[in-house]
Amino acid sequence: MCRMKIWVDADACPRVIKEILFRAAERAKVRVTLVANQSVTVPRSPFIQSVQVASGFDVADNHIVQQAQKGDLVVTADIPLASEAIDKGCLALNPRGDLYTEENIRQRLNMRDFMDTLRGSGIDTGGPAAFSQADRMAFANQLDRLLAQQAGKNVSS
Q1: What are the CB-based long-range contacts (under 8 Å, 24+) for 95-101?
Q2: Whole-model pTM?
Q3: N or C terminus: fewer CB in 10 A for the chain?
């Protein structure tokens, strides 16, 4: 069984990404926990669970940060949550397959804040591109790499 746990910021996570995570949980025997402030249906599995937290700003994010341990993986598009996860020694992966790292998270936070400032001053910055097949594949490939690395660590320890 994989020691790493996967924590999913499930409120905004695309359904197709959740399905990839469900298959990975069974294949790699890794615990996947979806955290949301609404009920999330998950398949019956000893490796998959959902946690419903109270409604409110950042309640799900705070739960993930409190529960995640060093070496766990946090799946989120929320850059501040990814930053907190990295600060705890976790890995952080965007549903589009981008791995947040200590090297790139500050730049992403700065860009996020800049875009918020533009929107706050009335400038239409548009939104993210539609979720694509390439995004789904990038996520699945990055997840497979991370799980393979974890499996290698478990064999050598």
Answers
A1: 95/13, 95/14, 95/17, 95/131, 95/135, 95/139, 96/131, 96/135, 96/138, 96/139, 97/135, 97/137, 97/138, 97/139, 97/140, 97/141, 97/142, 98/138, 98/142, 99/142, 99/146
A2: 0.86
A3: C
Report DSSP letters for the chain, one per residue.
--S-EEEEETTS--HHHHHHHHHHHHHHT-EEEEEESS-----S-TTEEEEE--SSTTHHHHHHHHH--TT-EEE-S-HHHHHHHHHTT-EEE-TTSPEE-TTTHHHHHHHHHHHHHHHHTT-----PPPP-HHHHHHHHHHHHHHHHHHHHHHHH-
Task: Quote the pLDDT of residue 96.
Answer: 95
151: confidence class by pLDDT, cuts 50, 70, 90 = confident
Burial class, 126, CB count within 10 angstroms (exposed 0-12 / middle 13-18 / buried 19+): exposed
